[in-house]
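Narrative summary of target 7.
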Amino acid sequence: MKTNTTSDMSPIKTIVKFFVFPVLLSLLAFQGNCSENFLPPDTSFVELKGIVKDKDTAEPIAFASIYLGGTNIGTISNTDGQFSIKVPKNLLQNKIEVSCLGYKNLQVLIPELQKTKNEIQLELARYYIRELTIRKVDPLQLLRDARLSITENYGDSPAMLTAFYRETIRQNRNYVAISEAVFDVYKAPYSRFVDNDRIKIYKGRKSQDVSRMDTILFRLQGGPYYLFMLDVVKNPDELISEENVNYYNFQYSGMETVEDRDAYVIDFDQKKGLNMSLYKGKIYIDASTLAISGVEFELSPNGIEFAPEAMIRRKPPGMKIEIPGANYVVKYRVIDGRWFLSYARTEARFRCKWNRKLFRSTYTTVSEVAITDIDAENIVKYKIKETARSTDVFSEQVSDFEDSEFWGEYNIIRPEESIEEATRKLAKKLQVD
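Modeled conformation, tokenized:
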């Protein structure tokens, strides 16, 4: 993978750094782009496109998992419910499996699907539970049992993951930066917390419109590195460690269906009166194995006023920065009795205003990763110098959007229509420049 070089970097007048678990943002000057020769499109697969909807309401379902039955190949629906999955031609008689939190799993024979405009409807999985059962569940004991079951559920051996990653930066309503890549990932064993995940770029691309960013130029720093830190089972310190339970109120709130499996739901929120910014959300624990199957959380309103102090490392004099919120999603999937990370997403918002000036901008950053394939046998532990680091600016490590067939056979998260339009505009601008 080529990395960017530049000879016309503008002077850096000021640097701002934010830390929003797991995202670190930097205010940097614009650097020039480079181009790359791309491989021709692969024709050994068939691409299937469609949308996942709620059967009752016809509303799109975001972050649904779409997998090729009998394999580890898969992807995720975007925020508009749209998806695309690339199926090897020798597996066209298999089934497509679709699942989402709170819905019944669905299997569809591939020969019954079209190449485009498929509409897959998921039925809500209604779960009824007796009040007596609710009173018997101790949420803290559930978390302890889940921690004790990590090695049994997630395995004590490493795995190789293929992952699609995308990060975007939006200034107000306009996309100003889009970067994406396929990663090869050495997923460290869950039994050894001292052995870290190692993420290596296989291929990637970017598109930017820095001219729209008046006054402030953002770069997302350490995006891939910190997104994998969202694996709270591998990195329990922020949410589920025994040391942190005193900072939160935990409450058992019933059971839901996750991947057609019963799951306990634990609500948590930062305790009031703490002078720090923590989180609130839901933890889903598989009732059969006690594996953590998913976590959804956000910055807690109980400590949001302390978020700037905790997240902003440095800022330019005369600038006021507010943080309206940040949201996070982590999902896991069980394959042959072993649980794997399948999806992670973070979205953070920043309001920036110069003192005594009318200028104000809201920046929204989104990073997401979908695990599109898993190999538990052919393990390669990459050298540290080859892998993503917390200090890397990912958008400076990949080249411009040029070829619409860039990804070939690799599965990606289908971009939203607004991102697709932004990509076309930014690519056109790059050609003109």
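The mean pLDDT is 82.
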